[in-house]
Every structure is written in structure tokens, then in C-alpha cells.
Give the backbone structure.
Amino acid sequence: MKIIGIICEYNPLHLGHQKQMRAIRSQLGEDCALVCLMSGNFVQRGAPAVFHKSVRAEAALACGADLVLELPVSCALSSAESFAAGAVKILSGFCDGLSFGTESGTAQSLMETAEALLSPRFSLLLRKKLNTGISFPAARQSALEGMGLETDLTRLPNDILAVEYCKAILSQGSFMEILPIRREGGYHDPLPHQENPSATALRRLITNADQWESYVPPCCRKIMGSAAIHTLQTGEIAMLAKLRTMTDAEFESLPYGSEGLWRKLMHAVRQESTLEQILGSTKSKRYTRSRLDRMVMCAFLGLTAQDLGTPAPYTRVLGFSEVGRTILKKARSSGVFLHTGEAADHPYWELEQRCSDLYGLFCVKGPEPAGQERRQRVIFHK
């Protein structure tokens, strides 16, 4: 039995995700086991997930996953490079392969691009490009072109992450094979495509109480339909309250705040009224909006640069099937730490509880009670 990892957010899970699972089993056989390493209550773009992680884990199991693990929040709110590196490190311990979506890449082209990005020559060229004041994405693309590599694999969202996964596999010496799956449709399309909807469009339909059910697998509709909805806008006042009471030292300790960006954000917080105004005042062509979004969310959650740079001591199990139970036994026997029991006194445990409690403030129906992380049970899908 081959064990294939999928690094995901399922924010929310839709027909395209189901298509990926089916494509993997079509290529490798129906007895192939799927392990989903999923972002928890906060996702990589620096926002709360629309549904609680337990809801999204249950949907994944209903859709065909055998084991759902939580990507630690210190990875989930990291840059694409750190997000990928942390996830690959976890899955490499017990998975045979890694599957991911890509708009245009092949296994060969993705690996070639990853190798170029890891080369010493690229680092030198990138530094020169960044010194001209252009954004990191533009500098990266220009540096690759300076090496004679004509590629579009650093422009679109799924391609970017796919290359980062390949970089992590190469740099970590992982033995996982890669299984790229073509991602049809647009990642940020404002209107959902019937067969290949974008998560962006679905979140808009869900938060506006519009018709979204036809864009998700039938087995997931009841699970999502009864779930509480969470939005960034709902928690904005809570975020502003935190930002306005932060000290200079707290701003300085934030991740992504290098080159004086933390100071620029601090001044914006102390001058502007809304979250959007703060972000708009801080943004420049040098820094991407997603970087600022993650920086502000880390500020709200009390996450420092040190927190994001410290590996989590465990990977939380969210749910499993009978096959998933077997995978867990294999992972634990090989030394991969996948449970919380021995780490309850670790500082990461407290960090995790805090993030969960604050997530409840984004609930559209009203604040959810604290302490839910301590009461959460692992889902068993028969």
C-alpha cells in the first residue's frame, strides 16, 4: 500500500479537491492511502479558515482521506518556503509520495526550477535584484531569467507552492516521489467554475449565504451546511484592540518585520482607523500584501518571529479511518511524533490553546467559548 501525502487547507473543500483524490487513486490504485496535512484554524494567506479545522477534517475523511493531520500554526502562517519546508518534513517521515496541484508544471520542470532556486548563483542574482527595490516575486523571476531559465512556474499560486515543495524535498533529502496534478480553473476566480471552483469564490458564496452546495462533494454538504462560519471582518475589532495596545518591542519581535517594516506597520496602526487602512498604508511594491496579512495575524495571535522559527514538538491528529489507524501505528513506530500526550507542558501547547481561543472571535454568529481545543476529540470515520 502506497501512502501519499497531500498538503492542504480545504478552505473549503470543493469538487477540485475531490478530483485530486480520485486522480491519485486512479494513477496508483484504489488501495492507495491518502494523508492530508491540513492547516488548522488559520491559513497561509493570514486569515481565519471559514470553517473550524474539525469540520474541514471531517469533510476530508468523508471525501476519501484516510488520515488528517494538522499543520502546526507556526508553519501554516509562514511564507510559502517555510510552509512547504515544515509540511514536507512532517510527511517525509512516513509517506511514499507527495501530491499537489499545479497550473502548468510537470514533475521534470518543477524539479528543474527548484534546483535552480537552490543554486548559489541564484542567491547572488536574487540579492542584486532585491537591492534595486523591486518586490521579492519580481526579483525571483528576474534572477531566474538571468540564469537563462525561462519559466512561468513562479507566477501562479499552485505553481509557486509546487516549486517550494520540490525545493523542500531536495534540500531535506526526502525520498518522497512527487505526483503533480493539473489544477484546472483559476485560483482566485471571483465566480465559481462548476467543475473547478476556486476557494475564493466559494468563501464569498458561503459568507453571503448564497448557493454554494453544488460546488462541493455531496458527502460534504451536510457537514459544512451545519457548521459555524468565520470571517476576518467579524474579528476586526478584536484585532484592532490587540494592535493598538502593542508596545514598540512587540512590533519589533513580529515575523516578516525586517528592513524596518515592523516600524512602518506600528506607525500605521497608531494613525489609521481600520484594518484595511492600516494594511494599505503599510503596503509598498517591495512587500506583498500576503506578507502583511500574515504579519498582522501573527500580531493578533501573539506569534513572534521566534515562535515561527521554532519547530512544533508534535503534529496533532484530527481524524482517521481504519486505514489511517494503521498509518498512525507505522508513523509512531518509525519515530514520527504525531500526538500531544507527551507535550502538554510544552510552550507550544499553550500557544496552540491561545490561537484556538482567539479563532472563536471570528465566528459570524457571535464569539465562541474559549477552551474548545482542550475539548476537541479525534474524528474516527468508519
Remarks:
- The beta strands are 3-8, 33-39, 42-43, 47-48, 67-71, 97-102, 177-182, 317-320, 379-380.
- The longest helix spans residues 157-172.
- The chain has a mean pLDDT of 92.
- The chain is about 50% helix and 10% strand.
